[in-house]
Amino acid sequence: MKDLNYGKDYRYTHDYEKNLAPQEFLPEEIKSKPLYVPGKNASETACGNGSKKIEESTVSEMRL
């Protein structure tokens, strides 16, 4: 597979601080669209809030 350049630009997550590698796998058309929108109940709101905190703290650290 190496002769086909398979995985050539792959960044191994565990080589990065906080196990977050700056890489994008989604196509351009959907990479900025939300993949999950929490419903209006307590548990989904909590998940959404947690996801938002993670995103806010890591986006500034990860520059593609």
Give the strand content: under 5%
Low-confidence stretches: none
Measured distance between first and last alpha carbons? 25 Å
Radius of gyration: 15 Å
* Largest beta-sheet characterization: none
Tally of alpha and pi helices: 1
Task: Spell out the helices and strands N to C.
Answer: H
How would the global form be characterised?
A: elongated
Which class of secondary structure composition applies to the elements?
mainly alpha
The proportion of residues forming helix, as a percent range, comes to 25-40%
**Number of DSSP E strands:** 0
Mean pLDDT: 78
Give short descriptive properties of this protein:
64 residues; mainly alpha
Secondary structure layout:
Layout: H1 42-59
Descriptive account of the structure:
- With 64 residues, the protein is an all-alpha fold.
- The protein has a domain at 28-59.
- The protein has one helix and no strands.
- It has one helix at 42-59.
- It starts with 41 loop residues before the first helix and ends in a 5-residue tail after the last helix.
